[in-house]
Amino acid sequence: MTAAPVLAVDGIVDNTILLGMSSPLSGPTGAYGRQMKEGIEACFERVNANGGVAGRRLKLVALDDGYEVDPAVANARRLIEQEKVFALMGFYGTASTTAVLPLVERAAVPLIGTITGADSLRDPAIRHMFHLRASYGNETEAIVRALQTLGMTRIAVLYQDDGFGEAGLKGMRAALASRKLEPVAAAVVPRNSVEVAAAVSTIAAAKPQAVVMVSLYRPTAAFVQQLRRAGLSPYFVALSPVGTDQLIAELGVEAARGVQVAQVIPYPWGDKFAIVRDYKRDLAAHSRTAALSYYGLEGYINARLVVAALERAGANPTRERLEAALRGAPFDLGGFRVGFGPRSNEGSSYVEISVIGANGRILN
User: Fold this and answer.
1) Count of C-beta atoms within a 10 Å radius of residue 100
2) Residue 135: beta bridge partners?
3) Please, what is the end-to-end C-alpha distance for the chain in angstroms?
4) Mean local confidence (pLDDT), 295-313
5) Rounded CA gap, 302 and 231, in Å?
6) Rounded CA gap, 302 and 67, in Å?
7) Can you tell me the distance from the alpha carbon of 314 to that of 198, in angstroms, rounded to the nearest whole number?
8) Quick count: other Cβ atoms within 10 Å of Cβ 21?
9) To which H or E segment does residue 362 belong?
10) Given a cut of 60, is residue 4 above it in pLDDT?
11) Beta strands in 107-242 (DSSP E)
12) Mean local confidence (pLDDT), 179-204
């Protein structure tokens, strides 16, 4: 018998390498996944036009989970067992990524690039998950450090009722505790909702100087609007998953002015990093209508990491060789460095804080 069935199981079929993705592509958070998908496909299109990786084309199989856990698990199972992808990438959300972890570990399929900064998913014992972005601990430390330089000690936290929110709250408590502080208030918003009235009441009563928001763009916008209507205008700072451009669209350019957002990848509209210049070029070639975005650039960087690891894995890649390549020397992806090492699955600690300026312009 030939080796074709083995290659099919490994996700290499007819000189094509299949990569699988599960993210929200529809619903209230669908813009996040669609932008990531555009960034990944823009990169793959450029690579394929130049002959692929060792003569093999790259193909993305992207499935919609609507930012819900059960569909994400079903998608992961389908991608591994039916689509038989070589590796997974671009999975979105702490709760979803946590839920698919047993499937990933049992099947020994690499998952490269996740939209989660949860420390619980960065345990070195997790062997097949590779995080591109910084942790929520990195983000919250940077946020508290920046607020402290402004003399702010009365800091409240809004967090959504899921793994993302709880991880961000944990990071905030740790960053404040290291300075002998604690949140003056912590209030929760239900996952996938804009029911923020109770949170507004709790946080308004504490009269904070700043509010750190561990929530996605719709509840974040609703919270900012309602807290201002309650007569408070503290510093508002959001964690990176909020989606800066989605937040601006939801709030409106005037209301969004002054809101700060932690970012875990470079500024997509700049020219400082070669990979950002490549992203702008390749996205324009891929689509005349696609707009630059943080999530789009993150998808593009994710794809560049996959490509670089595949190239390092050699002409006859296996999943084991791909993981060994990822754990080798750090990757310089056009100025953005990613490195894992033999006992780490956290590839970057890069954090910067942007602010929304006049006319909805994002400043870094």
Assistant:
1) 27
2) none
3) 58
4) 97
5) 42
6) 19
7) 55
8) 26
9) strand 362-363
10) no
11) 111-115, 129-130, 155-160, 185-189, 210-214, 235-238
12) 96
Q: What is the pTM of this model?
A: 0.92
**Residues contacting residue 176 through CB under 8 Å, at least 6 positions apart:** 144, 155, 182, 183
Between the alpha carbon of residue 284 and those of residues 57, 112, 291, 292, the distances in Å are 21, 25, 9, 9
Q: Taking a C-beta distance cutoff of 8 angstroms, is the pair 87, 322 a contact?
A: yes
pLDDT attached to residue 343: 87
pLDDT tens by residue, 210-228: 999 999 999 999 999 999 9
**Residue 276, pLDDT above cutoff 80:** yes
Q: What sign does the CA torsion over 364, 139, 102, 3 have?
A: positive
Q: How far apart are CA 226 and CA 247, in angstroms?
A: 15
- Output the CA angle 56-62-65, nearest 5 degrees: 160
- For 261-278, the DSSP string reads EEESS--TT-SSSHHHHH
Q: Where does residue 183 fall: left (phi above 0), alpha (psi -120 to 50 degrees), or beta otherwise?
A: beta
C-alpha 7/C-alpha 11 separation (Å) is: 6
Rg of the chain in Å (alpha carbons): 20
Helix or strand run (H / E) with residue 218: helix 217-229
Pick the closest to residue 216 from 68, 121, 93 (CA basis): 93
